[in-house]
């Protein structure tokens, strides 16, 4: 140590910071449950990064102050005891469950598991071309580990950086030097995020990546960008240890005015965490401004926590502080637990509850959240008290036993992940299963449909401007749209009958390259087309709504044309128009009025083992535009069809056409998160049905 005045590095345990983490993890649970009034949520993760950087750096500086060095071995062993036991147990449980019980909503490719195990999940998502918005529509139970992976990548290097910059002199000058370096790196990293928003990283052009990381989500996952949030906290920890005005700042924060100001600060922070998001109306300012301001808010909360008064009394409440202490375990467990509950497909006809100002009205909302969160906390308590805490306190798996047990579990999990991959469904199997479900529903619906009398009503009994019966036809987009109209259907007493062909186009079933996978035919699509006529005849819809047709955007082999062709080529367009005619002949056979919605742009997700690799032809905007042009041209020449520009309505949605809650997988539209589109559909139906 130097003869200079001793640097103050001891801050003590701050329960208020545990409380902040406890409240923040509740936001994470709500956000991943997809609560509609939470349009943001991503900045909560940013807060965790900054807070983590502060706490870890404070420990490193304190160690240097005490011993004159930083023991890398001690640091890494402490991190291993803190993180690995719970992580590997959860990973092992996930790979066993997802291998033994594969199915809808449960998909796990072996390399996805290995990415979670090796703490490079964020890099895997980048290399796989997975957008952030598309994550929530996939069944990967380990996708949430991207943030933990990023954190550990930072801490693999960060103590070495501190060791290098401080050298062997714990002087104020050395610490100020560390502060300047960390601050400069933090600002540069966050600014790099703004650059990545509109420009692909140079490394994304590596041949092995094939330009897959061209999406703006590259910034969201990028270690070189998100490290800036850690470094903001780290720089503040260094500043706190060396700045002589810190005691005066704490005294100032204890004055009545600033004590009162602490409450608006914490309320404002949670408003920011609830509302400002990566892919909503704030997306253009997320990097750098929202992230930077969120970092300043987090640092302000840390400063208030050091004062020990004001909001600290609330944030130090024991239940909140306890949740903050088990935040890591909660985060680790919650996502696979949420997916397990969602894959059960529970009967929604359970007791209803209406919480004012929210969308919590059925099992899918309030009761399901209680089930998800409650079961998560049970597992968390078991892991934390029986495994995680004893290991960290060296009461369990002492010495080399820790690493032997961890290595054995990792080996077993890896064998299960790769050997069990054969159990999982291939692309055709998955699509066949989905289409079998859709066809079974249609067959059941056909059997359950009553024989309508000749004078069956043609308008809703409660609103004469609406038809009595609507048939929704198309690919899986029509299925999802129809399910989103349940409340509208009940309110207006209109019967909506979905008749989807999952992954099917309007054109007949021909050889196709669908989402990068070449197939002789789309499974179940021929059977779907054959089923439409009988359903149309028996249901006798007053209005048929056609939507979807993503498969028509794919490369196909069509009769009379050698090789592959696609929309926009004259021979393909001519063939598709002929297919339109035969399709409309079937759908209008019962005298139904027909409205054909333009197809919104799609950005299908990459699913390891089930799709090719992006970019997908189906996501080509020029193909979607040409498809909609053909629909509009067809409608102008065929009196049986009315064209409605649904694609423009989707583009006008707040947050954009790919707002992640509305379109979690980049393709299907969840109307629960798009009330504006329900209004649009309602008015469109009224206008079309009222037209002579």
What attributes does this structure have?
mainly alpha, Rossmann fold, 2 domains, three-stranded antiparallel β-sheet, elongated, disordered N terminus, Acyltransferase 3 domain-containing protein, Acyltransferase_3, cell membrane
In short:
The chain is mainly alpha-helical and 692 residues long. The chain has 25 helices and eight strands.
Taking pLDDT < 50 over at least 5 consecutive residues as the criterion, the unreliable ranges are 1-9, 350-363, 424-431
The biggest beta sheet reads: 5 strands, parallel
Helix and strand composition category:
mainly alpha
Number of helices: 25
The total number of structural domains is 2
Mean of pLDDT:
84
**Strand tally, please?**
8
Structure write-up:
- By secondary structure, the protein is mainly alpha-helical.
- The protein folds into two domains: 15-423, no CATH class; 427-452 and 468-690, SGNH hydrolase (Rossmann fold).
- It is 58% helix and 5% strand.
- It has 25 helices and eight strands.
- The protein has helices at residues 15-32, 42-67, 72-100, 110-117, 121-127, 146-166, 172-198, 217-221, 223-242, 246-253, 256-275, 283-307, 312-315, 318-325, 327-343, 363-392, 400-419, 427-448, 476-483, 486-492, 525-539, 570-587, 621-637, 646-651, 675-690; strands at residues 469-474, 495-500, 512-514, 517-519, 543-547, 555-556, 593-597, 641-644.
- The chain has a five-stranded parallel beta sheet, sandwiched between helices.
- It is elongated.
- 45% of the residues are buried.
- Mean pLDDT is 84; it is low at 1-9, 350-363 and 424-431.
- It is found in: Cell membrane.
- Keywords: Acyltransferase, Cell membrane, Membrane, Transferase, Transmembrane, Transmembrane helix.
- It comes from freshwater metagenome.
- InterPro entries: Acyl_transf_3_dom (IPR002656), Acyltransferase_3 (IPR050879), SGNH_hydro_sf (IPR036514).
- GO terms for molecular function: acyltransferase activity, transferring groups other than amino-acyl groups.
